[in-house]
Design goal:
Length: 239
């Protein structure tokens, strides 16, 4: 009598040796090169490359001034100036994206409702005024779509000593306001320098009304190729 034997397939042997792995498991496994095996020169080149790319890549910044105290919009409505009294800054932004253009003007603030701006879109320049008590000043920005820089005006306070040499020798300034009036072409800005001084005359030991001097001077400042302003014409405003 023959006994029928069933053929059995041997079960796969599972190795418990951690150093032996199957081919399929190797294909699914990802390898990471330890940092100790990466040369130092490669890390330095990679770091410098990242910094170089970051500097060349334009990175628009959203203006942080959400509620400005004053806003001055350009005539073409493509730009605006935001005045923030809390940080004493004036920021130029693009519209409607509200992306900041260049660095804001710092330490530049006045009373709400006393500021103004005179735009020169042909030259891509704007003169902004911040006024208050007892003084007000003007600063000029030259801008493009992504950059902005400040153009330096001459020290117009020195004009008083040249225009009124007798008074400024003994008088003290009470208030001075330097305000933009208009642009005359591309490179010339007309400004108004007005205020008052007081002092005592040679034959009096007390201050009287006659010792108060009110002045109003119109100044034409021409900007050269480097952006530096020079006073080229001065006249006293008509009464």
């Amino acid at each position: 009598m023959h006994t029928r034997r069933e053929r059995t397939t041997p079960s796969p042997q599972i190795s418990l040796d951690p150093h032996r792995t199957s081919l399929s498991s190797c294909r699914r496994r990802s390898f990471t090169l330890p940092m100790s095996h990466i040369p130092n020169w490669f890390c330095r080149i990679a770091g410098l490359s990242a910094i170089f790319v970051a500097l060349l890549s334009p990175s628009p910044v959203q203006a942080v001034v959400s509620k400005p105290d004053e806003t001055f919009i350009s005539p073409d409505r493509h730009f605006a100036l935001l005045s923030d009294l809390h940080t004493s800054t004036v920021t130029l932004i693009r519209l409607p994206s509200r992306m900041q253009v260049g660095e804001p003007l710092k330490d530049f603030a006045g009373l709400p409702g006393h500021g103004s701006a005179v735009w020169n879109l042909r030259a891509r320049r704007v003169a902004v005024y911040q006024g208050g008590m007892p003084q007000g000043d003007t600063r000029v920005i030259e801008f493009s779509g992504h950059q902005a820089k400040e153009l330096r005006l001459p020290d117009l306070q020195l004009l008083l000593r040249r225009w009124y040499p007798v008074a400024t020798a003994s008088f003290k300034t009470i208030r001075t306001y330097i305000q933009p009036v208009r642009w005359l072409g591309v490179n010339t800005l007309e400004l108004s320098v007005n205020g008052s001084m007081w002092g005592t005359s040679d034959n009096s030991n007390s201050i009287v009304n006659d010792d108060v001097l009110d002045y109003d001077i119109r100044v034409h400042v021409r900007l050269d190729r480097t952006g530096a302003g020079r006073s080229v014409f001065v006249k006293e405003s008509p009464p």
